[in-house]
Design goal:
Blueprint lengths: L1 H14 L5 E4 L6 H9 L2 E4 L10 E4 L6 H10 L1 E4 L3 H15 L3 E5 L5 H7 L6 E4 L14 E5 L5 H14 L3 E3 L5 H16 L2 E5 L5 H12 L3 E5 L7 H4 L5 E5 L5 H13 L3 H12 L6 H11 L8 H24 L9 H6 L3 H21 L5 H12 L9 H12 L6 H26 L18 H22 L10 H15 L6 H6 L3 H16 L1
Parallel strand pairs: 1-2, 1-3, 3-4, 5-6, 5-7, 7-8, 9-10, 9-11
Helix pairs in contact: 4-5, 7-8, 12-13, 12-18, 12-22, 13-15, 13-16, 17-18, 18-19, 18-20, 19-20, 20-22
């Protein structure tokens, strides 16, 4: 929570065009994220006078002593990325000192978080890492015992009990972060069903090292890696079951990369699904299937060669737009989905782009030469909106244009269904962007989410509104035919997608992306059923 919040503060500052941007010390104990921030022009400083005056300085999640904070405030525009849980510990320490008590912090003496908390103790703070440290604490005053938020739960309980036995007036407050407890409990449970554990995270991250120590204490073989390439594949292949865990400072995109690395070398089925997901070829079917579904609702229409040409044009040109957009944004993928960046720098992609573009021209001409104007307009729009969230909406505009070509067959029901499919497409577009947002990476400005400043709460509100409308419209469509109530199934599948999104499943990005096809496929099945049965 705290680390993600601090990183997002930096990302927001970058998106706002603020410069120069500094972090007071390394923002995170993860070399990949630090490398990412460096590429974005963010620099870590060790002392307050190191950066330019009036620059932006971000305090990392561990927090800093109040004295240092005052110095930074006088020199920079300060963004406080201190974890809310750490702020709570700092406040508890300050309160204890104000009440005339001394503070004992169970944690690592050299950890930045502990140093920051000590700054609030006004010389009345003591750090305990082992039983030996207790001998250096005078026992004349009442004590408040706090913990480093990433401390091992069992170590804290053991040392807290020892403190309680040695000193008379002791108040113990367990300030270990719940996320830390969950991760530690999770790795213990994981050890029960696996032969080895892969721990993903920075080698200097205290909480990540503890996860590795816990796994080792359970007698498991542990692979502590900072990047996927460090995993010994040949050795891993000989192991029956492997568990994966990660530290609090490990970004989700790195966890996804590790899972992807393991799966693509151990599962052929996954490799096929991965290629489909990364290339986004599945998304090329969205528009043609929705158009086909709409045509199926018009029983008076026979799907002759003209309409088939129209649908094939929509497929191949959708693919062209997707490939072109991804190609122009390929350098940004390294910040949230490195595997995709690798694919879009290969010759396979260029071949797919060329073929899809040529075939879209052929089938567009066979449908009507007039539609070829779209082949010129939409690539131009993609270039015009190269640095704008509007680029993310080009696919929606293209769909609206194709609906206009179906004007001769419009009626009230068809218009309402068309609006329904447009909302369905909007929902899926936002859902896919939310999947990327949950990677903890830096998303490009060309995402529709950029309109909401990449605020996850705002995006979820919009998804909820779309869901409500998607459930209401089939009821309105029932005025034309009761069978239209079956389109509620499509809305229901969107609700399932939304619920899946809320679970923030890690290492499942390939499956989460492919699931976006379900609402559209359900809409098609309902349309086909209504044409045959009603």
């Amino acid at each position: 929570m705290g680390v993600r919040r601090a990183v997002n503060l930096v990302f927001r500052a970058v998106n706002q065009g603020l410069s120069p941007i500094y972090t007071y010390g390394p923002l995170i104990h993860n070399p990949q994220t630090l490398e990412l921030l460096s590429k974005l022009g963010v620099r870590a400083i060790k002392s307050p006078d190191e950066g330019e005056v009036n620059g932006v300085c971000v305090i990392r999640a561990h927090g800093i002593p109040p004295q240092e904070k005052k110095i930074l405030e006088s020199r920079y525009k300060l963004l406080d990325g201190t974890c809310p849980r750490v702020l709570k510990v700092q406040a508890l320490a300050a309160k204890a000192v104000k009440e005339g008590k001394s503070v004992i912090i169970i944690g690592d003496k050299d950890h930045a978080e502990v140093k920051g908390i000590l700054g609030y103790c006004q010389g009345k703070g003591y750090v305990v890492s082992s039983l030996q440290d207790l001998n250096e604490i005078p026992g004349s005053t009442p004590f408040v015992v706090l913990s480093q938020t990433t401390q091992d739960e069992e170590v804290f309980k053991f040392l807290a009990e020892e403190i309680k036995e040695r000193f008379r007036d002791v108040e113990i407050i367990n300030t270990i972060c719940n996320a830390t407890e969950v991760r530690q409990a999770g790795v213990r449970k994981l050890c029960e069903s696996t032969s080895a554990i892969v721990v993903v995270g920075g080698k200097f991250s205290a909480n990540t090292k503890r996860l590795a120590q816990i796994a080792e204490s359970q007698g498991k073989r542990v692979y502590f890696v900072e990047r996927p390439e460090e995993i010994p594949l040949e050795e891993i292949k000989k192991i029956d079951s492997v568990g994966i865990t990660a530290g609090a400072s490990t970004p989700n995109w790195l966890i996804n990369s590790v899972v992807d690395y393991l799966k693509r070398y151990t599962s052929k089925t996954y490799t096929i699904l991965r290629t489909i997901a990364i290339s986004q070829i599945y998304a090329s079917f969205f528009i043609p299937i929705l158009l086909l579904s709409l045509l199926l609702t018009k029983k008076s229409i026979n799907l002759d060669f003209t309409y088939i040409s129209f649908l094939l044009f929509s497929f191949f040109f959708s693919a062209s737009l997707i490939f072109l957009t991804n190609y122009l944004n390929r350098s940004s993928f390294i910040f949230f989905y490195p595997e995709k960046e690798t694919f879009y720098n290969t010759r396979h992609f260029k071949f797919l782009l060329a073929i899809s573009f040529i075939l879209s021209i052929i089938f567009g001409f066979l449908y009507t030469p007039r539609i070829l104007s779209l082949v010129i307009i939409y690539p131009l729009l993609i270039f015009i909106f190269k640095q704008s969230p509007m680029q993310g909406g080009v696919e929606l505009l293209f769909y609206i244009s194709l609906l206009l070509y179906l004007y001769p067959i419009w009626d009230d029901q068809f218009l309402l269904l068309s609006f329904y499919t447009l909302l369905l497409l909007c929902f899926i577009k936002l859902y896919l962007e939310m999947v990327y947002l949950q990677t903890d990476g830096f998303l490009p400005k060309t995402f529709l989410l950029g309109l909401f400043d990449f605020d996850e709460k705002k995006a979820k509100k919009l998804l909820k509104i779309l869901l409500i409308v998607l459930f209401i419209l089939p009821i309105c469509l029932a005025l034309f035919s009761l069978g239209n109530l079956l389109f509620l199934l499509s809305a229901l599948s969107c609700l399932i997608l939304y619920q899946t999104l809320l679970k923030r499943k890690l290492g499942q990005i390939v499956y989460l992306k492919l699931l976006s096809f379900i609402p559209i496929f359900v809409f098609f099945l309902v349309s086909l059923f209504l044409r045959v049965v009603f």
